Amino acid sequence: MADNRRPWITDDLVLFQDSIRKFMERELVPHEERWSKQQHVDREVWHKAGEFGMLCASIPEEYGGGGGTFAHEAVIALEQSRAMVSSLGTNVHSGIVAHYILRYGSEEQKRKWLPKMASGEFVGAIAMSEPGAGSDLKNIKTRAVKDGDHYLIDGSKTFISNGLLADLICVVVKTAPELGAKGVSIVVVEAQDLPGFRRGRVLEKIGQKGQDTAELFFDAVRVPCANLLGEEEGKGFYQLMQQLPQERMLIAIGALGSMERALEVTTDYVRERKVFGASLLDLQNTRFRLAECKTNATIARVFVDSCMERVLRGELDPETAAMAKWWCTQRSCEIIDECLQLHGGYGYMMEYPIARLYVNSRVSKIFGGSNEIMKELIARTL
User: Fold this and answer.
1) Which one from 73, 233, 247, 260 is the annotated catalytic residue?
2) Residue 205's CB: how many other CB atoms inside 10 A?
3) Known active-site residue 315
4) Contact 65, 118 (CB under 8 A)
5) What is the fold, at CATH topology level, of the domain defined by 11-122?
6) Does residue 3 have a pLDDT over 60?
7) CATH 2.40.110.10 applies to domain 125-234
C-alpha cells in the first residue's frame, strides 16, 4: 500500500523506499563513523550505489538512469536523512548535477556524461561558492576566457560538496564579466588528470564530516568550448535560478527526515530514562515539549507533501520552494535542539544519535542559499 501519510508516495515508491533503506543499512550505516573520521567516503561505495540503482534514479533510462521522477530523489533524500548517513553526496550528484546536464546539456553531452554518473564511474559536483561570493552569485570572480576552441579557466571555489572525489564538475564562471548576471555561464570540467586543476584541503566541518567538502583551484585550466552547458554563453545565472528550487526541496525533505528521526529517538529515550522514580516521559514538561515538536514536524510534513505534489505536477514556484527550505530547516534545528535538551548530558555525547543529528542539521540553514536569502526571495512577492 502507498504511504497514507505522504500522498505522493505510490505503491511502486514504497517498494523503492524499502530497497533504498535496506541498501543504506547494509552499505552506508556501518561505515559512517569511519568515513566521518577520514572526511570522505570510500570511492568504491559510489560504484556500489550505481550498481544498486541509487544514482540518477530520476534520469531517463536512455541515458543510463533509473527512469524515475523527482519523487525517487525525494525518497532517497528522506531515507538518507533518517538513517543519518550524510557522507555520500547523492543529492548533489543525482538531484542537482545530473539534472543540470539533462536539462541544459546537448545530446552529445548527455550521452557522454550521464551514464557514467549513473554507474558511479563519475562523481558529480557543482562549483558555485567562492571565498568572496556565496549566495551572491553575480559577484563570482572565476573567469573563463576563450582561447581558440577552448576556455582558459582561472579562479578558486570553496565549500564544494564532493570536491575531493568529483570527476565531473559544473563550474560557474564569468564569460563576460562586464555584463554582470548576464555574463555568467556554466562550463563542465572533467577533472581527472587535468593540468592546472588542483584540489585544496578537505574542509573540517562541525558536522557532516564524512561529506568531502573541498577547495578547488583553477590555473589556466584548458576546457573545450564544447563543454559549455547550454547553446550560448551568459545563460548560467538563469540555469542556476531554474534548478535551485529543486535543490531547496531536497534540503527541505532532508530536514523533515531529520526532525522525524529526532522525535523517534527522543521518545524512546525519555520513555526509558528514569528520574525521580518515574520515566522522564511522565513529567509534564517533557510531554508538552514533545507535543510542540510533534506538531511542528507534522506541519512540516504536510507542507512538504503539498510542495511535492506541486513539484510532480510541474507547478512549484521558486518562492514556495524557498518557503519550504527556510521553514523546514529552521524548525528542524529547533526540534533537534529541544530533543537534545531532553537527553540531558547524554545529548552532548556523539555516541547518541541526537548529538549527530544536532551537528549535521545546522548547515541546512546555510547551504542551498542561506535562510536570510530565502526570506528575501519570499519578500519580493509581497
Assistant:
1) 247
2) 17
3) no
4) yes
5) Butyryl-Coa Dehydrogenase, subunit A; domain 1 (1.10.540)
6) no
7) yes
